């Protein structure tokens, strides 16, 4: 394959998940499971310890939650630190960290204050610090490098009021008559760090050579024609600076536009910036998800230690053990997905497939852990931390994490929509092109399966065998769907089926990674890793069976007819009896739209 089959396929560089799409369980790619190099791990340990102390001295998370704002002094100190350029070269004042160590630092900061962690994550994922590393030599790179070295805070302005799911961007960049620049017009919302951003990366539609394409345009937010619109307040992550911009014929020099090579596969944002965004979700979503899950484990342990029901310690009840065991296993799996997604490139693999699905896997696993923790804490009341503190109960901020975790399932794309896109843009591209597994790696995969099987407990050996069988079934079902719907339009209209297909493949990947990681941990004398793998895979295989059933369904209830009648007002009106459905105007008397002074 010399031409990419889809937007994340890299000819000559495969991935474990991509091989599952093609119908093969290439265990030789994941076993032995990679470990962070010792020298890199030690560097990460030291930086994580420093980051924890830095975050603790920077903000009071309870106060940030109450006021809904990060202190100006905190932003100032961030600008003066190296935390906004974790992976930038040292000549720019960066720390030149590996992907995994950058992830660990963001996780550590997020565990103390998620809004603070997200400010750091934005700059290290979709900010100009990482963009500089992929820019060609020239005036734009020189300008951005100089700004990054001075502590630049930037915002990535992509999403528009009409929604992020649209392929086209209504914001346009029109060439000026003199040919020296562009006039940019449009509206952007949900831009992280927008209230105090010093530069904007604006995704705009450009017409060139009779073709419409997306370009990343560097805009000065203080330029004539730019206006910061209202700051956004989320249901969770209180204090995370976020907002929008309107642009009215903003003049931008031609050399402030990042011109990429044309891509064979059109994407929502530019191809190379899109690659940064894929890795960026590891920092923006996966790292905070893991931080929240680990906090919930610690809170759960403290809770069951101090509680008794009828004189019996809470931890002695079977269902409590089940809840905590499942959360431990899910956190183990979350770590496995994160480690693999950030280390597999070192083995010459393409990490983009795994990084794409890690967003959903990690945020959903985190949500499960938080939800179970909420059930455990029901005995202490459905309370805020302040209310608990007022009556002498440990003021665990579970409510905050509950809202924050739910936000992570939406950020970076709604979970079900990302699953649909995965099937539409990637999985079936292999079936359409007829490039399924032809057994090239069969011998290596078989040998790896034998080695992995020997390293597993009997229960985990059975799980591995079931995963192998499920991949065979997955391949057959995808082939049947491709044959049943020979044109893309009718195939892609089967949205519920395609979502089930994507989740099926993703679960196979996650369970396989968990088994491989458990085998490595066992070799490192971790006597409990296999128990966690057993718990996780037992649940994963149940989910796989359900997704397989959904993907095989030929008939379903007619939700389309029911929904159309409801939307048009022709049916089911009685379902709204006895309620007051009016929405009152929200209180807009809060802070103004101007950002804080962080000079």
From TrEMBL:
Pfam families (UniProt xref): Acyl-CoA_dh_1, Acyl-CoA_dh_M, Acyl-CoA_dh_N
Residues covered by region (Disordered): 572-599
Listed GO MF terms: oxidoreductase activity
SUPFAM superfamilies: Acyl-CoA dehydrogenase C-terminal domain-like (SSF47203), Acyl-CoA dehydrogenase NM domain-like (SSF56645)
Protein name: Acyl-CoA dehydrogenase family protein
Domain Acyl-CoA oxidase/dehydrogenase middle positions: 155-250
UniProt lineage: Bacteria, Bacillati, Actinomycetota, Actinomycetes, Kitasatosporales
Domain Acyl-CoA dehydrogenase/oxidase N-terminal positions: 46-133
């Amino acid at each position: 394959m010399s031409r990419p089959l889809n937007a994340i396929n890299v000819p000559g560089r495969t991935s474990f998940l991509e091989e599952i799409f093609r119908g093969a369980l290439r265990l030789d790619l994941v076993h032995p499971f990679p470990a962070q190099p010792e020298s890199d791990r030690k560097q990460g340990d030291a930086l994580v310890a420093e980051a924890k102390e830095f975050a603790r001295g920077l903000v009071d998370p309870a106060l940030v939650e109450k006021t809904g704002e990060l202190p100006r002094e905190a932003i100032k100190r961030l600008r003066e630190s190296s935390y906004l350029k974790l992976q930038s070269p040292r000549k720019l004042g960066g720390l030149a960290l590996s992907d995994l160590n950058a992830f660990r630092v963001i996780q550590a900061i997020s565990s103390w204050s998620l809004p603070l962690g997200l400010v750091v994550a934005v700059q290290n994922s979709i900010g100009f610090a990482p963009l500089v590393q992929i820019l060609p030599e020239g005036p734009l790179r020189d300008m951005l490098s100089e700004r990054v070295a001075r502590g630049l805070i930037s915002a990535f302005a992509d999403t528009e009021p009409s929604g992020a799911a649209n392929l086209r961007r209504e914001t346009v960049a029109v060439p000026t008559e003199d040919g020296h620049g562009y006039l940019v017009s449009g509206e952007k919302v949900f831009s992280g760090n927008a209230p105090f951003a010093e530069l904007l990366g604006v995704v705009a539609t450009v017409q060139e050579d009779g073709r419409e394409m997306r370009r990343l345009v560097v805009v000065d937010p203080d330029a004539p024609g730019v206006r910061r619109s209202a700051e956004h307040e989320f249901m969770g992550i209180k204090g995370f600076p976020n907002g929008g911009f309107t642009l009215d014929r903003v003049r931008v020099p031609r050399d402030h536009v990042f011109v990429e090579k044309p891509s064979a596969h059109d994407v929502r944002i530019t191809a190379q910036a899109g690659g940064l965004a894929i890795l960026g979700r590891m920092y923006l979503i996966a790292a905070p998800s893991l931080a929240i899950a680990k906090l919930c484990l610690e809170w759960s342990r403290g809770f069951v230690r101090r509680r008794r029901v009828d004189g019996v310690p809470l931890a002695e009840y079977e269902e409590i053990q089940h809840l905590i065991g499942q959360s431990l296993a899910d956190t183990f799996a979350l770590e496995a997905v994160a480690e693999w997604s950030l280390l597999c490139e070192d083995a010459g693999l393409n990490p983009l497939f795994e990084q794409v699905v890690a967003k959903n896997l990690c945020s959903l696993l985190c949500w499960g852990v938080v939800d179970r923790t909420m059930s455990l804490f029901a005995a202490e009341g459905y309370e805020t931390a302040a209310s608990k503190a007022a009556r002498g109960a440990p003021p665990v901020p579970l409510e905050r994490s509950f809202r924050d975790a739910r936000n992570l399932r939406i950020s970076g794309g709604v979970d079900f929509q990302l699953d649909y896109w995965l099937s539409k843009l990637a999985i079936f591209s292999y079936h359409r092109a007829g490039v399924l597994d032809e057994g090239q790696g069969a011998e290596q995969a078989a040998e790896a399966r034998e080695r992995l099987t020997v390293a597993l407990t009997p229960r985990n050996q059975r799980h591995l065998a079931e995963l192998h069988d499920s991949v065979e079934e997955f391949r057959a079902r995808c082939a049947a769907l491709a044959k049943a719907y020979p044109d893309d339009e009718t195939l892609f209209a089967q949205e519920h089926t395609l979502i089930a297909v994507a989740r099926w493949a993703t679960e196979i990947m996650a369970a396989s990674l968990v088994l491989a990681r458990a085998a490595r941990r066992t070799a490192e004398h971790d006597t409990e890793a296999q128990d966690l793998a057993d718990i996780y895979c037992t649940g994963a295989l149940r989910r796989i069976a359900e997704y397989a059933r959904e993907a095989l369904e030929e008939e379903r209830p007619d939700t389309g007819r029911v929904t159309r009648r409801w939307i048009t007002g022709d049916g089911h009106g009685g379902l709204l009896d006895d309620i007051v459905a009016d929405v009152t105007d929200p209180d807009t008397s809060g802070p103004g739209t101007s950002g804080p002074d962080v000079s």
